[in-house]
């Protein structure tokens, strides 16, 4: 039986909370302390430290900080995602956004950006919807970019391997078309088909950065269920930066609990409760 590690001291909790908010914009109030301790325990044991407080002390040493920061961020970020999560967004993409955008693209590929893409389910859902439109006879090309701050989830996204339970929200016909079953029948796993994986590129990126290494003529940006973790000033700055990468007439789609951005001083028009247009 694994013995629990000593609790995180008040000072060390404040140091970690301040660092996380500074680096990724995520606030860790006191009621998140137990969550933080639980998520860090595995990392502390892997590095062989006596306790979590020793880990925090070592973290801030110059020769250790840069390398360990990536692992710390992986521990504290929340990566909840699903295929076809908030499905009305994908209905809007298929029925409204893409037809409208195609009338203006003049043959160039559509560019879709899944910001905070986690394990890739959102990006691959977009790819499934767009590929299905192509198969129905709509002639266009598309490129999808998925970005996230967590290296761990990006690796999973690039592999495109999921359990059968994870793809339960995918319509049956699409699941048969876009997922390959594992040859090992004892493993309840599927993998995104290669041609769909090739349509999505993944890249590590921090939404707190002042500059995003992304094209400035993106047609649609999905940034869902991440803004809620930021305070109001940070939300405003992130939304402003995201919108600067949209071409005129492009769409920003946020999560169901994030329609608060309509109250901010950004020149975007709300077309539905969580869908905005520049």
UniProtKB/TrEMBL annotation:
Write out the catalysed reaction: L-glutamyl-[protein] + S-adenosyl-L-methionine = [protein]-L-glutamate 5-O-methyl ester + S-adenosyl-L-homocysteine
Give me the segments passing through the membrane. Answer: none
InterPro entries (UniProt xref) = Bact_Chemotaxis_MeTrfase, Chemotaxis_MeTrfase_CheR, CheR_C, CheR_MeTrfase, CheR_N, CheR_N_sf, SAM-dependent_MTases_sf
* GO MF annotation terms: protein-glutamate O-methyltransferase activity
CheR-type methyltransferase domain residues are 1-278
Parts forming coiled coils: none
Top-level taxon: Bacteria
- Reported EC number(s) for this entry are 2.1.1.80
**Pfam families from the UniProt entry:** CheR, CheR_N
The alphabetical list of record keywords is:
Methyltransferase, S-adenosyl-L-methionine, Transferase
Binding-site residues, S-adenosyl-L-methionine:
79, 81, 85, 122, 148, 206-207, 224-225
Write out the GO biological process terms: methylation
- What does the UniProt record say this protein does? Methylation of the membrane-bound methyl-accepting chemotaxis proteins (MCP) to form gamma-glutamyl methyl ester residues in MCP.
For this entry, the protein name equals Chemotaxis protein methyltransferase
Annotated organism of origin: Rhodopseudomonas rhenobacensis
